Amino acid sequence: MRIQDQPAYILHQRPFRDSSQILELFSRDHGRLSVLSRGSRSAKSRLRGVLQAFQPLQVSWSGKGELPVLGRAELMQQRPPNMKGMALPCGFYMNELIMRLLHRHDVYEDAYDLYQQTLYALSRPDSVEIELRLFEKNLLQLLGFGLNLSEDADTGDRIDERQDYMYYIEHGPVAVRSGLADSHHLVISGQSLQAYEQNDLSSPQTRKEIKSLMRYVLSYYLGEKPLKSRELFR
Question: Label partner for 80 (CA 20 to 30 A): which of 51, 62, 149, 160?
């Protein structure tokens, strides 16, 4: 099989033998896959400056099985995202989420577009945290794990901004009644749930609560293995 001129980003790369490397790609039309890039770590390789994370690439590969061989890789003509400051660890965090949550070889065109749009949105320093929370929410939605942010999962009543809720994963928020709160479920205000549904993370308190919510929810889908990229934020 030969694939030509596919838009893609590099999510991860690791050395292979003397001068080669294995690249984890996120491609628009072929999803997430690994390719072998022969000789690209050599000092003489023209690909050394091209095969970098967060660069919009156009790549070609060929071969059968789990590890096809990279043929050509070129920078796209569009301006690359400006991954400076906090944007850089956020980008590595997004890469790790993609690698952990998306199945290999499944096509995720909408997730690819979301990933690309968020990389460019991270170039605005004042909105980095907001863009990351929106990326997490929208990615889960695209993967079929969308959050219930609009109604009480038990009663069907609309979320009340004056009420606190316990959040049950794969069920949703349930109003905290007297004596019902427990330490096994995250408690979040109705006001923050409403704000997140409307993509309004302008309040510092809302951002704090939603960060806790998303860490709680993502830990369920990611399993016990911690995210290495979170260490970069320290």
Answer: 62
Q: How far apart are CA 76 and CA 148, in angstroms?
A: 38
Dist. CA 27–CA 6, nearest whole Å? 7
CB contact at 8 A, 115 and 9: yes
> Tokens 């704000």 correspond to what residue?
195
Taking only the tens place, the pLDDT of each residue in 20-49 is 999 999 999 999 999 999 999 988 888 888
Range 115-121, long-range pairs (CB < 8 A, 24+ positions)? 115/9, 115/26, 116/9, 116/56, 118/94, 119/9, 119/54, 119/81, 119/83, 119/91, 119/94, 120/81
Q: Which of 50, 55, 20 is nearest to 35 (CA)?
A: 20
In angstroms, rounded to a whole number, what is the distance separating the alpha carbons of residues 195 and 70? 44
pTM over 0.90: yes
Q: Are 16 and 33 in contact (CB under 8 A)?
A: no
Residue 35's pLDDT is what?
96
- pLDDT for 202-222, tens place per residue? 999 999 999 999 999 999 999
In this structure, what is the dihedral angle of CA atoms 210, 212, 217, 218, given to the nearest 10 degrees? Answer: 100
